[in-house]
């Protein structure tokens, strides 16, 4: 079984030093239709990021969040069970163990923000550059974006990572990708 991971962030901006609201991640085998498994879903302490590390918050992104469904906004901004950055990195490091590849939807958002955070904290990044995969490019090669047919919820980091993983499985089947 191939072990890949899909990761997604919900944030307060689009720059590498932006504050993270939530991180969602799920493991999956892209060569099968097996259900993604081993979810990781964390709400991150925004105050620690903005006050201690001076990570940024973008007004345009706050305005964008105001345009999202109330239930999605409430989930992303809820204050209970927020974890500190040390717990975030420990949980993510543990979750990444054993992954062959790590996917995100676009090469310049989720990875850059997390790598910037790890660097700022003086911690090693829990993946290698050669493990990075990009679902946006993969979906762009398909006749139609597979997410549009199955994704029910947008802007929930765990739901987004789940649907993106399922769509990578669909793409692998459509392109008849074989294990090496």
UniProtKB/TrEMBL annotation:
InterPro entries linked to this entry: RNaseH-like_sf, RNaseH_sf, Rv2179c-like
Record-annotated 3'-5' exoribonuclease Rv2179c-like domain positions: 4-170
GO molecular function annotations of the record: nucleic acid binding
Matching Pfam families: Rv2179c-like
SUPFAM superfamilies: Ribonuclease H-like
Protein name: 3'-5' exoribonuclease Rv2179c-like domain-containing protein
Record organism: marine metagenome
């Amino acid at each position: 079984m191939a072990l890949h991971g899909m990761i997604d962030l919900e944030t307060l901006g689009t720059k590498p030093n932006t504050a993270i609201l939530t991180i969602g991640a799920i493991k999956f085998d892209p060569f099968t239709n097996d259900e993604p498994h081993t979810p990781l879903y964390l709400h991150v302490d925004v105050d620690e990021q903005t006050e201690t590390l001076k990570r940024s918050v973008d007004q345009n992104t706050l305005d964008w969040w105001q345009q999202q469904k109330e239930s999605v906004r409430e989930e992303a901004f809820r204050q209970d069970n927020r974890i500190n950055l040390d717990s975030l990195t420990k949980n993510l490091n543990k979750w990444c163990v054993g992954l062959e590849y790590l996917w995100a939807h676009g090469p310049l958002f989720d990875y850059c923000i997390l790598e910037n955070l790890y660097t700022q904290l003086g911690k090693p990044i829990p993946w290698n550059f050669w493990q990075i995969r990009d679902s946006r490019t993969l979906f762009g090669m398909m006749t139609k974006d597979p997410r549009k047919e199955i994704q029910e919820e947008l802007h929930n980091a765990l739901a987004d990572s789940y649907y993106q993983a399922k769509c990578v499985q669909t793409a692998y089947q459509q392109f008849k990708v074989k294990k090496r």
